[in-house]
Amino acid sequence: MPLFSDDPSSCVSPSPPSRFKKMDWKVRGDTNRSLPVISFFLGAALTAAFVFLGATMDVNWRISEMAVWGNGGGRDEVNAELSQLLKNASMEDGTVIVTSINQAYAAPGSLLDLFLESFQIGEGTAALLDHLLIVAVDPGALATCRSVHRHCYLLRPADGGAAAAADDLGAEKFFMTPEYLDMMWARNRFQQTILELGFNFLFTDIDIMWFRNPMRHIGITSDIAIASDFFNGDPDSLHNLPNGGFLYVRSRNTTVEFYRRWREARRRFPAGTNEQYVLARTQAALTGQVGVRMQFLDTANCGGFCQLSGDLRRVSTMHANCCTGLANKVHDLRGVLRDWRNYTAAPREARRRGGFGWTKPGRCIH
């Protein structure tokens, strides 16, 4: 899944002001003897505190989210910019559609072109582009985004080392490589930041084609709605395996806490575990602890290559899941768009009767 995201160290809400008032300290007696003693104990206490924090923080979290995805500038400035962009793109209920790209996926004829084309040829989906925020992870992708779309956001590296890493973000990222995993967990933190800023989001992979508005399939009582590669028939069953490439979350205190615990759960799994696997193993416990309703979307409506919908009259989105390699995704998604065009060009009565399907086999689709 070609997915990208933001850095926690720059997008989290500003730290609240200290609860403690400033205190004036007076040194009584012989200051020449008391000050060194006070300094010694203060220094020892601070050292112990930093050692404790360093030992308890997840080293992988620090590297992947502070070094790789740090945004330049202060937190207030970054949050203000992001909040304004989200406000500009939001629907009346505060929902924003979010996707992310790098230079490889934004290249002419690549996934971004196919993604935007699907909105244009879908049924009632063109207007949804007004509510789409495209997150670019490199300057080349940002330039392309601004040439074709209104709402674009650049993730800025925090320092020179991160900048060097960001230079490589324009290239294709392969499934489950260290770079891929860094981006998946950083994307997870970025989504939490959107919730903390008070916006609902529908995150969509750039390799998902939109043919109808999928939000009509999201229950009004659902706090989280997520795709599944293989739907078991029960939208409330926590035995469904989640696919975070298509994910809707309402901004609530409970969902922010859900994300916080989801991220904390990473520490209980071996290094090299992606966020989707962690969610699949913890979603039953997390929903019960936090008190959120999690809905799994029917693949007949929001499906993909893993479990194809055979009825184009019901399809809202099509995901190039169960498929690796940029060239393979682009090849098969072009066929998907061609099949959709053939379907919508047919007479209404023919479409009503059904019988339309996807061209198979492809490089991934079968």
| Residue share in helix | 40-55%
List how many beta strands DSSP finds.
10
Distance between the termini: 18 Å
**For the CA atoms, what is the radius of gyration?**
23 Å
Q: Give the biggest beta sheet.
A: 7 strands, mixed
Q: What is the tally of helical segments?
A: 13
In which order are the strands of the major sheet placed? 3-2-1-4-7-6-8
The mean pLDDT is 81
Secondary-structure element order, N to C: HHHHEHHEHEHHEEEEHHEEEHH
Task: Please give a structural write-up.
There is one protein chain. By secondary structure, the chain is an alpha/beta fold. The chain is 44% helix and 12% strand. It is built from 13 helices and 10 strands. The chain has helices at residues 8-11, 31-56, 59-67, 75-89, 103-106, 111-121, 139-148, 160-167, 178-196, 253-265, 275-290, 326-345, 348-353, and strands spanning 95-101, 132-136, 152-154, 200-204, 208-210, 224-228, 242-249, 294-296, 302-304, 317-319. The longest helix has 26 residues, at 31-56. It starts with 7 loop residues before the first helix and ends in a 13-residue tail after the last helix. Mean pLDDT is 81; it is low at 1-38, 47-73 and 158-167. Residues 128-333 form the Nucleotide-diphospho-sugar transferase domain.
